[in-house]
Each structure stands twice: as structure tokens, then as C-alpha cells.
Design brief:
By secondary structure, the chain is α+β, with helices and mostly antiparallel strands. The protein has helices at 46-56, 82-99, 107-110, 126-196, 203-215, 220-236, 244-265, 268-288; strands at residues 7-14, 18-27, 32-37, 60-70, 76-80, 117-121.
């Protein structure tokens, strides 16, 4: 069954040292594009995450976000350079005395110097944490796939509804098609007779030319090809492969046949049915844009 390119997945996995959250969002895109955001300490996992997503998603813009929290608190620590702080303190006191300045050199002043107080990442077991990220990624991808399948099921129902509407209109056109050639033949023959208003110069040749003209109004081949494309479209909807591009191609071919029917038929009733089929085809195109 087809899958939508729109979906969301999230998974939390907690180990002894840290808890990992992986969120995945996907939207429609012509090709597969994977964007990965991970903490700086896990930058080496980006390629592995991207390859894992590529194995399970075939089309769409997929955004993967990984966040890590220490099991007992933060993964960052505050570092204080006391020796440097003492040097600052001595230098500032000396400056205060030399310039005769008032005030005190206190902790709030010293804390403003970035080289005295700094925040660093705690060393982490990247191998163990990497395994936790991979587990969380697998769970998030499973959730994403479930949602994309649910969306795909809804898409299939809607696509079938529009396809059925086209079939109904096509059936009415097919019922009227046998009359088109005869009507075209009769109209042209009447015009010629009205223009000449005399005995026809070569009735046999005229009949032949009129028959060729009427044959140009025959839409039976277009109706057969349209039905064939619709059947392929229907069958493709039940494929387990990525079918979005195939469906787009079939819609393009269906549109070509419908346009030809409209131009050849030269009939007001069929023209109205062609407009109806084109409207349904446009709705199909909009929905197919989100099929993986």
C-alpha cells in the first residue's frame, strides 16, 4: 500500500548515563532530502543517521533532531580558573589604588571575565551513547512509517474517489462516441450540398473524403488508452514500492488523452464531460504530490 510523504515520529530511550530523544518530521519533496541535527559531541553519528533514514524513506524532506540529557542532570560543567582569578583580583586592586577609584573588586566583577568562568561538555561514552541514539532513531522511524502508512491509506481512498468520478464521465462519453462520426459526416455533407446547390461532381470521391473527415472525430482509441492508464493507476496504488513518480507519469498520460478527446469530439455534451474529467485529474495531481 502507498505511503504519504507527510509524517512524524518520536522516541525516547534512557540508558544508565543519559536519556536520548529523537524526533523526525517529513514533508513532501521531489526527491529524498535528509537533514540531521545532533549535539556537537555526537557529530560523528550524522552519516550513520542519514544512511539509516535513507534505507527506510525513499522520498520526501526528512528532518531528524537528536537531543541528549544526562541521567543525573546536565552534560555540561562549570570550570573556574582560580589562579587566573587571583591575578585579575591583584591587578584590579592595584589599578584601583593607583587611580584612586572607589568601590570593591568583588565576585560579580570577576565572574564577568569569560576566561575565568567557562562552561565545558562533560566527557561522555560516545560508543554507548551512540548505541542509545541508534535505538531511539529506529523507534522514531517506526512511528514515522506508521503515520505515513495511515496517511497513505487515506490518500488511496481519496484517489479512488476521484478516479471513479473520471470513470463515470468517461463511460458517458463512450456511450455517445459512436454517434460522433455519423454526426460529423452528416454535418459536413449538408454544408457541401448547401454550398454547391447542384448535383455533386463526384459522389464516390466525396463519400471517401467525408468518411476520412468523420474518422478524425473518432475517439475510440483515446478512450481505450485512457481506460488502460486508469487501470494501471489503480494497480499502482496497491504496490509496495515507491510509486509517486509513476502515478505522476500516468496522470500526465491520462491528461493527454482527455485533451485529445475534447479536441476531436467537437460536441458540447462531451466538452462538458471533458471539463469535469480535467477537474478530477487536477485533484488527483494535488494528492499525488504527497505520495512517496
Amino acid at each position: 500500500m502507498i505511503r504519504s510523504m507527510t509524517g512524524y515520529g518520536k522516541k525516547d530511550v534512557t540508558s544508565q548515563t543519559a536519556s536520548v530523544t529523537v524526533e523526525i518530521r517529513s514533508v513532501n519533496h521531489r526527491f529524498l532530502e535528509v537533514a540531521v541535527r545532533v549535539p556537537r559531541s555526537l557529530a560523528q553519528l550524522e552519516d550513520q543517521i542519514r544512511k539509516t533514514v535513507q534505507q527506510r524513506c525513499l522520498r520526501g524532506r526528512v528532518d531528524v533532531s537528536v537531543s541528549v540529557h544526562a541521567a543525573g542532570g546536565s552534560l555540561k560543567t562549570v570550570q573556574i580558573d582560580q589562579a587566573l582569578a587571583k591575578q585579575y583580583h591583584v591587578a584590579l586592586k592595584k589599578l584601583q589604588k593607583g587611580l584612586g577609584l572607589k568601590g570593591t573588586v568583588d565576585i560579580s566583577l570577576l565572574a564577568g571575565f569569560r576566561d575565568i568562568v567557562s562552561i565545558t561538555d562533560e566527557p561522555v561514552d560516545t560508543e554507548h551513547l551512540g548505541k542509545t541514539v541508534v535505538r531511539a532513531l529506529g523507534g522514531a522511524l517506526t512511528d514515522l512509517e506508521k503515520m505515513r502508512r495511515r496517511e497513505g491509506d487515506a490518500l488511496v481512498k481519496d484517489l479512488h474517489a476521484h478516479l471513479d468520478a473520471i470513470r463515470i464521465a468517461k463511460s458517458v462519453v463512450a456511450d455517445r462516441a459512436p454517434e460522433l462520426a455519423a454526426n460529423a459526416f452528416g454535418r459536413m455533407k449538408g454544408r457541401i450540398e448547401a454550398l454547391l446547390q447542384t448535383e455533386l461532381p463526384d459522389p464516390a470521391r466525396l463519400q471517401q473524403e467525408l468518411a476520412l473527415y468523420a474518422d478524425r472525430s473518432d475517439i475510440s482509441e483515446e478512450l481505450v488508452r485512457l481506460e488502460s492508464h486508469m487501470l494501471q493507476f489503480d494497480q499502482t496504488l496497491h504496490s509496495k514500492e515507491s510509486v509517486g513518480k509513476t502515478l505522476e507519469f500516468l496522470l500526465q498520460e491520462m491528461g493527454r488523452e482527455v485533451n485529445t478527446i475534447g479536441s476531436k469530439a467537437n460536441d458540447a455534451d462531451i466538452a462538458a464531460l471533458v471539463v469535469r474529467m480535467k477537474a478530477e485529474l487536477e485533484k488527483l495531481r494535488e494528492q499525488v504530490q504527497n505520495v512517496e
